[in-house]
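Many introductory courses stop at the sequence. We go one step further.
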Amino acid sequence: MAAFGSLSDRLTDTFDRLRGKGKLTEADINVAMREIRMALLEADVNYRVVKDFVTRTKERCLTADVMDSLTPAQNVVKIVLDELTELLGGTESKLVFSSRIPNVIMLVGLQGSGKTTAAAKLAYMLKKQGRSPLLAACDVYRPAAADQLATLGGEIGVPVFRGDGKNPVEIASASIREAVDKMRDVVIVDTAGRLQIDEQMMQEAVDIKHAVKPDQVLMVVDAMTGQDIVNVVSTFAERTDFDGVIISKLDGDARGGGALSVREVTGKPIKFVSMGEKPDSLEVFNPERMAKRILGMGDVVGIIEKAQEIATAEQMEAAERMLRDGFTMNDMLEQMRALKKMGGMKGVLGMLPGGQKALNQMGGNLDEAVFDRHDAIIQSMTAEERNRPSIINGQRRARIARGCGLTPADVNVLMKQWGEMNKMMGKMRAMTQQQGGKKGKKGKKGKKMRMPGMGGMDMNKLMNQMGGMGGLGGGMTDMDKLMRMNDQYKRK
């Protein structure tokens, strides 16, 4: 989540200073609010939004319940989390589909905001959900816009309707008829944009909306747009009355302030965020989880959801076997490949508590090539060595290194990582044995998080025992170790 990297660092540092004080005074709160105000302004959040946000937050922080509590710093963090969640929309806002066939989703926005790629990503997401989308290429002005959409549609297996390639309103209308003829239940209309707002673009968007009567109008906003976003979204809201926002390029180098301003300025919810270039990089926007990531608390639930998305019945059986019998090199190979599908080490680390800060300290880069090296090393092992890594001695390491064209030191790094993961698996096995037969209790402590093949295990307790990822505002207790491991992986 590079777009909020600097903001996240500033806020985390502010909270760290508060935690170091124990009892807080009004002066401490004033200093913290001033730092939060500066952090938001530097992230290019609209100044009116910042003023209202800080006023509300300060008012809540100065109550007796906070100032006289045993953990005032944690209460301040909780209040900032609540207010930031509310600023981002409060609750998740899902797409609303009507009973008519086809449903129509119309995308609007400025040129360069990422509408065309967002249209393809949305089509890919809906296809995964069992729908049959059709893409309508209504941008007849930008050179090769229809060709780009056709290429993207071909990559994901979704047809693209181009019509006569001349009249956007007629293309949009004809795409509805095409969807009915070809039994497509959703039409995604990709409209034209301009480098800046002009009357012709706005009127064309209004005409297309009147012609196709979309069930949802979504505005695509580039995360790199700063203060200007306020005028842009306000104009589109007035003329097209859009229903929600897609924030694109949130994985880029933007400061992210525009994204934080949209909901407050327009009252329209953020429905999706785009976190990369791949078709599956569009994510449903969850305000609370995004707020936690901005505040350095991570998104462990998001990691679990990603793991569950790619999990197969065989993988769940393998997870149970690993807990029962131990961790092999074949298991490690499967885990590395699964991690790549989830976005690689960088993507997953950014969702861990304190992970984004660690990434920023590493310059935002991790050596993802380690996957390929480890893959090659494991492929050079015999079947027995993969199943029983503990038998790999110095002589075997030298032979394995020669077989994959690497060095014994590279093999040592892999063996060390396998040892750490094997220890972790042992801790998980001990916990499942401890909790075996016990059902998770409901009540004050809430429901226990469930992972495939792990019964009713309390994941928060497990994470605390395995390295301290839980806790309000807490970071990973051994993040510096992870950073040192990454340095080991980098080849000179």
